[in-house]
Amino acid sequence: MKLSLILAVCAIAALAADYTAGERRHWAFQKRSTPAIPAVEPAAGNPIDAFVRARLAKDGLHLAAPADKIRLIRRVTFDLTGLPPSPQEVETFVNDKSPDAYEKLVDRLLASPHYGERAALHWLDLVRYAETDGFEYDTHRTDAWRYRDYVIRSFNADKPFTQFVTEQLAGDEIDPANRELAIASGFNRLGALRKNAGNQEVASSRNEVLTEMTNIVGSALLGVTVGCARCHDHKFDPIRQKDYYRMQAHFAAVQDREVPLSSEAEQAAWKIKKDAVDAEVKELKKQMKGLQGEDLSKMQAKVKMAEGKMPAPLPALFSVRNDYDNFKPVHVLYRGEYTKPGDEVHPRSLGVLLADGAPELGADVKNPRTELAKWITSDDNPLTARVAANRIWLQHFGRGLVATPNDFGRMGQRPTHPELLDYLANQLVEGGWRAKPLHRMIVLSDTYRQSAIVTDDAAAKEKDPDGKLYWKFPKRRLEAEEIRDAMLAATGRLNLKTGGPGVMIPVQPELIQLMYKPEQWVVAEDKKEHDRRSMYLIAKRNLRLPFMEVFDSPDMLISCPRREASTHAPQALELLNGRIANEMADALAARITEHAGKDRTKQADLAWRWVAGRAPTAAERKLSMEFLASQPLREYALAMFNLNAFLYVE
Questions:
Q1: From the CB of residue 426, how many other CB atoms can be counted at a distance below 10 Å?
Q2: Percentage of the chain with pLDDT > 90?
Q3: Structural domain includes residue 276
Q4: Quick check: 2 pLDDT over 90?
Q5: DSSP-derived secondary structure letter, 217
Q6: Per-residue confidence band for 176, with pLDDT thresholds at 50, 70 and 90
Q7: What global pTM score does this model have?
Q8: 532, 546 in Cβ contact below 8 A?
Q9: Which residue, 155, 334, 328, 365, is CA-closest to 232?
Q10: Nearest-10 crossing angle of helices 69-81, 87-95
Q11: Burial of 96 (0-12, 13-18, 19+ CB in 10 A)
């Protein structure tokens, strides 16, 4: 046997020995099962209920009674659109006695353009979308908003998840001239970016960029913590350090790409203006040399004023491309340090999920990210469909069947209902990887439609205190964006305009002064823009709106798999004393006065319908009358925004 053939055989044998049968035994790495729908009495009309009821029966538990129609429409409308139902929508649904009234409601919500906005918000959390770089300079990405709008369009169109993922990973490889795909592949640039002044360590920065690209594939698409294998073999999951860098090698040729949307003449005119500002700033900085004290301060002010003349960037597509002319191969890095390269590696997916002996792709493969996307979106990949189905379930119950949606590894939690998870994953695949049918199945189930209020729950609380088995619907607090949007809806001010650049709204001056360049914060002149849905407010990493931050909006630096729902004193202080809450209270009071005049009974009724989505109970009406007899209407409006009836869905 020739030496070269012997070496090749040995190499393949070494790859095959990478992973033992025991390492491949973890549930998440196993092929999806095809579970039979359990037989339960009485028979379940929805397969989800059969799985849930069968599990509850093992502990002698059962589903709660159905939720009333008013609570149900508020629940499902927030879940599918992120907005509250209008009083007219509530009334129409409550008065619709047809047997398919709820199905018609669900279908209308799934067809709403606001469905895409709601679904996109969770995806943007996951991929740590922002319109700025982060770190010290937090430079604005003036065209990143196009990616946000692409995600919304994709969800509204119910684009197959496999296509959605492929376009983001490799859209520029698939069709470099396609603008939509160029926007989609901006996914690869969403990570925070450190920009250093002076002597920049290019190799270090490049290593950070590649790390961001690799890690998000693991957490967002595969639901495994591949990033833990950057410096050494993963301590808990069967992911070798070499496999981490093989995964990273898919991105070795990727470079930032701005696709101009302006003409050559416009670009030339812009460059002339830019060069003039650069020359002026350069001259002023020369004059700064040797200055001290007040003279230095004056000159610094002149420099800042000159920099402010810089023309706004021309519109472009925030994208990437493969640059093979400046290609540098990927090496395994000792302890993850870019100064200590080891063996050169080439693209290959995670070995634990590959057939024994699967080779690396060639060093000259021309579309490596397309190959990665093919593997990730393969029907046979045991992770992708499970992870995607789990995220859909999470949107409706606040908790996934796997409670650690970014970690299906050994340190993550095991599924509470493994057969149901595989059933849902199979349904997703068999349904062409479209999400809307799965959403529909979930919200039409008795499990979803059951009440959150159970009076005889002592036994259930003892056996399942965390509600993991779904013996009642888990009451949840609205997310930060939902709270602000619901306030705007209650006041009648909500601007439902869609898309476009992120909107800057007024914030505390002291926060703006903390920015590296305070002049970057330019409040929108059109005040109607200030009332846009919260997802259209600019996502700036170094300036999170206090209202959003206090209600647990993510920091946009790392992937956020699920929103937390903390409860602490600053939330009450924000709702009582904050600028946004008080502005909304003034607006709500004005709207109530316009429609109810001085009739206190009517004032209370309108306030409850607009804020809580229902009429007040007798006790609530009595308390409202007592409050309004001694306090101004705007204080009553402010109090309404602090009620659990507003802040929670049940």
A1: 18
A2: 84
A3: yes
A4: no
A5: I
A6: very high
A7: 0.93
A8: no
A9: 334
A10: 130
A11: middle
